[in-house]
């Protein structure tokens, strides 16, 4: 794999946090407001956002999320 794959990029990392937070909030909003027949789609959307949080936590545990190690500890 190219070296670029192993470089820590804080901008990409925080963008992934933003995408996960916005996707989760949107999913919760859709679950609250959508008719019953759209709920499975909203559940899948929200579940995917939660998976994003898991991936971020996993990267922090492996010290590959941020150059700032305090951020990864929190």
Class computed from helices, strands and strand pairing: mainly alpha
Which percent range fits the helix content?
A: over 70%
**Which H/E pattern describes the elements?**
HHH
Which consecutive residue ranges, at least 5 long each, have pLDDT under 50? none
Query: Residue-averaged pLDDT, rounded?
Result: 89
Shape: elongated
Largest sheet: none
Q: What is the β-strand count?
A: 0
Total domain modules: 1
- Please, how many helices? 3
Alpha carbon gyration radius: 15 Å
Describe this structure in words.
- It is built from 3 helices and no strands.
- Helix 1 packs antiparallel against helix 2 (39-61).
- It is mainly alpha-helical and 74 residues long.
- It is 70% helix and 0% strand.
- One of its GO terms (molecular function) is oxidoreductase activity.
- It comes from Ophrys insectifera subsp. aymoninii.
Compact overview of the structure:
It contains 3 helices and no strands. It is an all-alpha fold.
Keywords:
mainly alpha; 70% helix
Topology of this protein?
Layout: H1 10-33, H2 39-61, H3 69-73
Helix pairs in contact: 1-2
InterPro entries: Fatty_acid_desaturase
Protein name: Fatty acid desaturase
GO molecular function, one term: oxidoreductase activity
